[in-house]
Specification:
5-stranded parallel sheet, binds zinc ion, about 300 residues, Rossmann fold, about 55% helix
Length: about 300
């Protein structure tokens, strides 16, 4: 029956039919292969399979293994669909490090270079509070009461942010998660989205280095320009280079305040650093170097992910 159908379907492959007997004769040499071919032939119509298989065999016999044909690029429409498949690996990065270590600067630079959104929970809080969204109002309650914002609220803000269209290729978290609890909640969100953290980049510098960096900062009262008594001093001590205004040390930048923030950070985030280390996600980056040098090291780390 199959024989009758084939010629009816198309007259053109008449040439192909003539070729068929030849390869068949070759397959007769290898019994197991022939058996396999037979099984394969059972379901689909003979024509195509019979013609293809022996051709491949002939190639292997001559010891010249044919490489599979190069994949043709898909037509544009198909490509869009393919990108949504989970096979596309999103780059989800977490930037960790004590306050003042410079991770925010690096996160912003990398986000720009990779065209990924730079997500800082501080920015999200400010934005939601300003727009007085339900989440923003909830967060405000805690902040006004001088309490820590619960993890559900913080992670809720993040989940809301991830729903925007710019998160399709991945995203960079700056200063989030801050605690193991937040990371656990984040894990649930990412799992729902079929995503996972690719790496946690930990920017490390001794406390003394950070204290020196921050406590040496001076801000201009008139124009807000920032200088540093040691690393970027003004031409005249206490006078802004740009506008001549008086420079001062912000109260947040005082050495004792910085030390206290560093202690708090170590207590909250230390366990999270260990958690990422045990999961094999931690990548430590020496943050005592200059901005460009740190960026080069970080880029190399990310490229290897
Ligand atoms: Zn100034």
């Amino acid at each position: 029956m199959a024989k009758k159908k084939a010629p009816k379907r198309a007259r053109k492959p008449a040439g192909k039919q003539r070729k068929r007997p030849q390869p068949k004769a070759r397959t007769a040499k290898s019994k197991p292969r022939r058996a396999a071919a037979k099984i394969a032939r059972k379901t689909p119509p003979r024509t195509k399979r019979a013609a293809k298989k022996p051709a491949r065999k002939a190639a292997t016999k001559g010891k010249r293994v044919l490489k599979p044909a190069p994949r043709k690029t898909l037509p544009p429409a198909t490509r869009v669909i393919a990108q949504r498949e989970p096979a596309v690996k999103k780059l989800v990065l977490v930037f960790l490090g004590p306050p003042g270590v410079g991770k925010g600067t690096q996160a912003a630079k990398l986000a720009q270079a990779l065209k990924l959104p730079h997500i800082s929970t501080g920015d999200l809080f400010r934005d939601h509070m300003k727009r007085e969204t339900p989440l923003g109002l909830k967060a405000k309650e805690f902040v006004n009461a001088g309490k820590l914002v619960p993890d559900e609220v913080t992670v809720g803000l993040v989940e809301d942010r991830l729903q925007r269209g710019d998160c399709g290729q991945g995203f960079i978290f700056d200063g989030f998660p801050r605690t193991v609890g937040q990371d656990v909640e984040l894990g649930k969100v990412l799992q729902r989205r079929g995503e996972q953290i690719a790496a946690a980049l930990y920017f490390a510098a001794p406390d003394a280095v950070i204290v020196e960096r921050i406590s040496g900062r001076r801000t201009c009262r008139q124009c807000g320009a920032i200088s540093h008594v040691k690393f970027n001093p003004t031409r005249v001590e206490g006078k802004c280079d740009l506008c001549g205004g008086e420079t001062y040390q912000r109260s947040d930048d005082a050495a004792d305040k910085v030390s206290k923030r560093l202690e708090e950070y170590a207590a909250n985030t230390g366990p999270l650093v260990e958690r990422y280390r045990s999961q094999g996600l931690l990548r430590e980056i020496d943050a005592t170097k200059g901005v460009d040098e740190i960026f080069a090291v970080m880029s190399a780390v990310v490229t290897r992910l």
